[in-house]
Amino acid sequence: MSFVLSAVLVNLPLAFSPGPANLMCVGIAASKGFRRTLPFIGGLQVLPLVYSVLVAVGASAVLSQLEQVSGIIKVLGSLYMLWLALRMWRAPRAPAQNETQASPAVASGFWQGVAAQAANPRNILIVVTLYSVFAEQSQSLEAGLALAVIITLCNLASHLCWSLGASTLRASPRFERYQNRLSGGLLVVAVALLWL
Known about the structure:
The chain is mainly alpha-helical.
């Protein structure tokens, strides 16, 4: 159970941080409405799930043979997470509404969501980082697949929340600043929990 809690706490700040997919959700939801963003959000979930399952299957085979390396991977993954937490904490305000707003002509279907994630290298980096941080637990295929589900559900929750709150986020720079600090702080707490 602590593995699931730790995995959720590590992934939530990453999933909710302002990244390309979240900003696309905001732009599309702001221009087309929440309901018309849902197919796009569905498409955004496909590749992270595929990447996660591939890493889980490979991780269970590879990491079981490399127990000595898992400690190094955990340290490097934790350092990367702390660096991300600092960047989140110190993040400047996002561009103004008219700078990131998607035009009504922007396609927002399922396959456009899949294509958007294919062009987003952050996905692979986050998946590999999460499996690196949880290298010991990922040796079990069941835990590796559970992490794939956690990653997908955290991403889905993030995309839904960003889309629902598109108008609020664009209207209130103060809220955005608090969200960045909360994400950064949660990431530090999550890294600390990994070492307890």
